[in-house]
Design a protein that fits this description.
Elements: E1 3-7, H1 12-27, E2 31-37, H2 42-48, E3 53-56, H3 64-84, E4 88-91, H4 98-106, E5 110-115, H5 122-127, E6 133-136, E7 153-155, H6 169-175, E8 183-188, H7 195-203, H8 205-210, E9 214-219, H9 225-231, E10 240-242, H10 248-254, E11 257-260, H11 264-273, E12 277-279, H12 289-298, E13 302-304, H13 310-320, H14 324-334, H15 342-355
Parallel strand pairs: 1-2, 1-4, 2-3, 4-5, 5-6, 6-7, 8-9, 8-11, 9-10, 11-12, 12-13
Helix pairs in contact: 1-15, 3-4, 6-10
Length: 356
């Protein structure tokens, strides 16, 4: 049995892939310790999975105070490594992983990295030269990596929840009691919601509701749900509007089309489920959603619109739902992006390194 430190935090896009790998490592008889932020969502998510958690008081930014705090956290992580003596440390990006990864390098531990997005994040950019292996979600990331370091990388896809690999579209449609001629449209802006998407859906709600043989699952996000529900009249009893769907991957599996942001994890789920999509990337350059979305567009599995074009995106989605051949073609094209089970591929690679 080996002891491994998993480190990341901040957002679900970083945490859920890390949890998938952590749970598989434990299932294979290893001991895992998760190091993250004491004030971000991993502080509650990780203990719920009965995984030992160490929280760091880590903050973003380049102020003198935060830089001094980060240096002190590196020393704290050095002590954690001395106490726990892990064989490996695997980081899943975000500034939260920085102090533990740097401490691991200083202690000459085996370092592994995983990048969820098409473009390398800052922490992974800093440390990939020191890593045994960096696991990539997409082939396109190689374009940003110097040739002399490319053998340090491996494309595995993003680690996803194990159940997604066993989902069947026909079975999910049967569970939802979808008739053969009925189409399903899923609309989601993530857990907090996306105002531009929600505003466009509100504007077109009557048109959407009057569309024959169309069922809508709209996740508004928690932030605006109450206000939206007050102003919304739902006439079609098959249409479902919620802040968030706990079984969203099952609904997306049954869907004919998804309108959503272009977060790395969402796109990896769409690829695994082979579901066509209309993507409206979050417009911050730092997040890198446009680069993620471009991968699906270039493989003709998705269409891209910006925040100023959300109304057009709704109109195009309605037209697409009338075009079975286009939807089938998009679903077929997505298959070329699918990888094997990323979680298992990552751990198998780590074990190969360990046994050499």
């Amino acid at each position: 049995m080996s002891k491994i430190i998993v480190t990341t935090g901040g957002t679900g896009g970083h945490i859920y892939p890390a949890l998938a790998v952590a749970k598989e490592l434990i299932a294979r008889g290893n001991e895992v310790i998760f190091v993250g932020s004491s004030s971000r969502m991993e502080n509650t998510l990780v203990p719920k999975e009965n995984i030992p958690f160490i929280g760091l008081d880590v903050h973003p930014g380049k102020s003198i105070k935060n830089i001094i705090s980060m240096i002190s956290l590196v020393f704290k992580c050095l002590k954690i490594i001395d106490q726990e003596n892990p064989q490996d440390i695997i980081g899943f990006g975000n500034y939260i992983s920085f102090p533990m990864l740097l401490a691991g390098i200083l202690k000459r531990k085996n370092i592994y990295l995983q990048e969820q997005n098409a473009s390398l994040g800052m922490t992974n950019k800093l440390f990939y030269r020191f890593a045994k292996k960096t696991f990539l979600a997409f082939n396109s990331t190689y374009e940003d990596i110097p040739i002399k370091y490319q053998d340090k990388f491996k494309v595995t896809g993003n680690p996803l929840r194990e159940e997604i690999y066993h989902i069947n579209k026909a079975e999910e449609r049967t569970k939802l009691k979808v008739s053969p001629n009925e189409k399903i449209l899923v609309i989601t802006g993530g857990s907090l919601g996306a105002k531009s998407i929600n505003d466009a859906v509100k504007k077109y709600w009557d048109v959407l509701e009057n569309k024959k043989d169309l069922r809508i699952y709209w996740a508004t996000g928690t932030k605006n749900y109450d206000d939206i529900l007050k102003k919304l009249e739902i006439k079609n009893i098959n249409n479902v509007v919620k802040p968030y769907f706990d079984n969203l991957i099952n609904i997306m599996a049954a869907a004919d089309l998804v309108i959503c942001r272009a977060g790395a994890l969402t796109l990896s789920e769409i690829i695994q489920l082979e579901t066509p999509s209309v993507l409206i990337p979050y417009n911050s350059i730092k997040v890198g959603q446009y680069e993620n979305a471009l991968i699906l567009k270039e493989h003709q599995g998705a269409l891209i619109y910006n925040d100023n074009e959300t109304h057009e995106a709704i109109e195009v989605a309605l037209d697409l739902l009338e075009n079975d051949s286009a939807l089938n073609r998009m679903a077929h094209n997505i298959k070329t992006l699918k990888t094997s089970n990323a979680t298992k591929a990552i751990i198998d690679t780590m074990e190969i390194w360990r046994n050499n």
